[in-house]
Amino acid sequence: MRALSLPRAAQPTAEAFVKGLVTTGVLASIQKRPGRPVLDKLVVRRALQGGAALAAGTVAAQAWQRQDLGRALTAIALGTASVMVLEQWMKETKEKQDGQEKA
């Protein structure tokens, strides 16, 4: 099986996303119940948000070092939007499963 080949610029971003996903997922899973990790929707939501935030932060930091303010601000805006979309999407999913209507 052939490995997926990402463009050179996307590799650090993808790597940062996975690092953020795993790191935040591990922290969120053990913070709820120390000694007994939990994997639920809240942990998944936080893990995805952590991945998105770290990937955006990585791109913003790299752009900042290159003095590319436009790209840095775009990365921050897209990262913020991603975290907000994940928050809303996961809340709506929970509400539908609980049988509650959106306010």
SSE blueprint and pairings:
Elements: H1 10-32, H2 41-65, H3 69-98
Task: Tell me about this structure.
- This protein is an all-alpha fold.
- The protein has 2 domains: 12-66, no CATH class; 69-102.
- It contains 3 helices and no strands.
- The chain has helices at 10-32, 41-65, 69-98.
- Helix 1 (10-32) packs antiparallel against helix 2 and helix 2 packs antiparallel against helix 3 (69-98).
- The N and C termini lie far apart (48 Å).
- The mean pLDDT is 86.
Beta strand %: under 5%
Helix content: over 70%
- How many separate domains make up the residues? 2
DSSP helical segment count:
3
Gyration radius, in Å:
16 Å
One letter per element, helices H and strands E, the order comes to HHH
Rounded mean pLDDT is: 86
Summarize the main sheet.
none
Straight-line N-to-C gap: 48 Å
